[in-house]
Amino acid sequence: MVLRYAAFTTDPTTGNPAGVVLDAAGLSDAEMQRIAAEVGYSETAFVCGGTRPDFTVRYFSPLAEVPFCGHATIATAVALADRDGPGDLVLETPAGAIPVRTTTGTASLTSVPTRTRPATAAEITSALTALRWLPSDLDPSWPPHVAFAGNDHLVLAAGSRARLADLDYDFPALRALMARAGWTTVHLFWQAGAREFHARDPFPPGGVVEDPATGAAAAAFGGYLRALGRAPSRFTIIQGEDMGRRSELTVEVSPDDARVTVSGTATRIPD
């Protein structure tokens, strides 16, 4: 049975929808991939075994398995809390063990240790070409990086909110570039205030134009800010607004820990 949850929202018509299969122990890889394609969301999570508090979880986009997905982790944790009651969990994922704390309707995941590196000139040029952006569209105060929190994300800062809102990229070109580079999303962001960022995440490797909320990218972004010495201890990412699926992700960063915590609500999407 596939459950459907909207993550990082209390409104099932917004946020990022995820499929959740709580009883996937008997499913083959091919069956999980087929179900994810049929569901059609950017990610579907499959609980493949375990007993509380430890569960094994795998994630499939409509096109392929991915090592980690933040919004589907939040959705899965809330689904487990809805079934079993709230509490602490450890989700064993292909990217590593992810501790998760749940309350009613809310979950907080702690990423694997983050890392980040400056993007190369060739990577930046290729990405801007695929995005149909000019170098002048970037905010020069934020260096482009490739950031990791279970998978890799290219991080680019838009020079204005209008630039971020106007997303019209070359899907085949960006998909090919991301396949070569091994990036899961391109995390485009704009700083709205000291503790608020707006973001968009093209996701052609998953077969979708854009992800409305990306917990994995949010964790990687927190690691990026930490590495630059510019991370608030707690901040909000607004994502999905420009595609009509507003999502709110809360990110917590410690100066003494490379792991990042991402929190949000999730709500059941009616059948």
TrEMBL record:
Record's keyword terms, sorted: Isomerase
Family to which the UniProt record says this protein belongs: Belongs to the PhzF family.
Protein name: PhzF family phenazine biosynthesis protein
Organism: Actinophytocola glycyrrhizae
